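Below: protein 1.
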Amino acid sequence: MAMAAGGESGTEPGMARAFPGRGAPKATMAERLAHLALGAACIAVLLIGLRVEPAAAGHGSHTQIGLPPCGWAVAFGKPCATCGMTTAVSLVVRGELPRAFVTQPAGFAFAVVCAMLFWMSLHVTVTGSALGRLVGREVFRPRILWGLGSLVLGSWAYKFLTW
């Protein structure tokens, strides 16, 4: 097979720019172990969500795993920034996506991201793919971090309105 203009056999010119992870060095053993830990943490969150029954009130499910009632809610009678997250995760793992979103939008997003990170981490751990490096580079951009912060604050405001 002849070498393509991009210098790699079987690739087209500009392919490395279109797919930045393509041709990247394989994940190191440390990266694979980090992804193994990340995947384990993500699946643990999802399994806990499966164990917990969603609270009808839309918050308070965390008490089923031995955590105390929300100190913020007890002290101020208003939701904390994470109120409803455990309930939303428990709804996502049951496939009740619209109800999870209405319960706590940031919790819904957190559960979906945990599921995606679990599969990505499993892929990186098993295959040594550089995908994790690419995703990590993209996720920690200021625009993404500001967006995540805005999602949490917006969800907190939403919980105040629906409390």
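Below: protein 2.
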Amino acid sequence: MPLPGEDSHMEMAPMERLLELKRLAHMAQSAKKAGVLMLFYPSELNQTHFVLILRKTYKGVHSAQVGFPGGKFEEVDTTFQDTALRETQEEVGVPSHTISVIRELTELFIPPSNYIVKPYLGLTAVNPTFIPQESEVEDIIEVPLTEFMDDGILIKKNLSTSYAKSIDVPAFKLQEHIVWGATAMMLNEVRQLFKKSL
């Protein structure tokens, strides 16, 4: 199926300036690169879940936020898919060789950290034993697909961000965590894909 693309991102975007900033970043070739993975797997009860992580509190724009396993492109990586798989193994302990990457999703520019992120959709056939990376991961968040597809998870949240104070942003409420910004934008593309296929 064709990807919903940037339109799906913008539905969950805190600010409409993101597309223009992405164009500027591409023109300047100044943005750093990263790869992330939305990993689906069967739970112990054989129900489909995917994994998110709660990042540690640190001095940075994504401190204590919910995100996908993933990170910065390194010299050891041949492709951004390699980055997403390597970081997933490092951050949540799922071996790369057990993951099948289904497809690349629409890349996204994240202005506060100046990253262009390439997201991937993947799955593993077994229920993983998650091992959170102690230095970076505060908690593992396991989200049932049934919860993800429920329209009741769509909310508005008043937040203070790195670029604005007290603004209402679109968000998802998943497993009692508020998921907003770039992660919500990427999640929305996958959610729209799944809605179209049902």
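Helices lie at 6-11, 18-28, 80-92, 145-148, 181-197.
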